[in-house]
Each structure stands twice: as C-alpha cells, then as structure tokens.
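1st attempt posting a full record on here, be nice pls
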Amino acid sequence: MGKSTRPAGGARAGRDKLEALRKEQQAKERRTRLVLITSVLTVILLIAGIVGFTIYRDVATRPTLDAVEKFTVTRDHTTEPVTYEQTPPVGGNHNPTWLNCGVYPQAVPNELAVHALEHGAVWVTYRPDLPADQVDQLVSEVPDTYMVVSPFEGIGAPVVASAWGVQLKLTGVDDPRLAEFIQEYRQGPQTPEPGASCTGGSDGTDVSSGQTDAPAPTMTPSPSATQ
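the predicted structure (as tokens):
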C-alpha cells in the first residue's frame, strides 16, 4: 500500500494561520508598549506640571526687594545738627557717638542713629500712632542685635526699614519684606563699618551726645566688636 500524503493546500493553510497569529501577537505587544509609554509620559508630564506650578507660585509669592530705594550718602563726623534728605535718614554726616542698638519708645537723635547704621544696624521706624499691639508684634519679629526700633514723625508709610544707603517703605508690621530687608542689609555689603560696635555708645540721653530727649532702649543687644 502506498504512503498517504497530506494535501499541499492544507499545509499552506496551516502556515498562513500561524503567520497571522504571530502578526496579531506582535500587534498586540506593540499596542501594549504604546499604552505603557503613553501612561508613563502622561505621569511624567503631570509631575513636571505640578513641580513647575509649585515653583512658579513660590517665586511669584516670594517677597522681593525691588522697591528698595538706594542713595549715595556722605559719612563725615560732626557735632552739629544735620538736615537729612531722607526721612528717616539712611546715612550722611553724623555724630561721632553712635546710638546703642535697641528698642526705643520715643524718637531718637538722627545723628546718633545714622552712626549706628554706619556700623551695620537696620533702623526700623514706625508711625507714632501705630497701635501698641502692632508695635509689640514688630519688636517681637526683629532680631535682637544690630537693630534700632523707634517711632518717627512724618514717615511716608506705617513702617519704614532703613540701613546705610538703602530704605524700604512697608505696608505695615505684617509686610513679609521686612524680614527680607533685614536679612539682606543688616551688616550687609553696603555697610561702611561692618562689625563695629552697636553697644557702648549712647542711648541718646547723655549730655556728651548733644541730645537729651530720648529714653534708654528697652532691648539690650548682644555685645559686638568695638570700632
């Protein structure tokens, strides 16, 4: 009896079916990879968007010192009264004795306060009619070294921060720029005599300073190097 043979057409049909299944499997794998890649990219873009928005919001809401005014001032010693161009003054000729840093409940002599600025202090002045609780808040938020805090008549804002050659008008004691100003300019690069004493000078009441109308400060700063 002769051998039976499989029809050639059946073998070809089997190979075609196998090829079709293989292509279908490859297409399915490609679709799966595409879905996975798309999902990963979507997550990456979403994370990037959140991070970008967070950074933008942080930068947009961060206090800036763009409004700081800068002045060129002299720095000679004089025992005579000085008329200053800025209110409060940010520098200029001043008394040979500096004002001790601290918190003063009444106005201080400009000529002595300017000398404290020369040593790197920041002078925070406020309108005399500022409510007492806001004054207390202001005092509690400033550092206790190289700072002078006092009321000042005729300033152009509720609170004004001054350092040697620079000044910033603030909207009030809650203005976040105050902290930025202090960080930037207290003993800052614009200071003519950084590290010079903020104590051992005058509280504005001694006869030698030529001024006798300011009470002693209520805040005692830490000792610093003498000039």
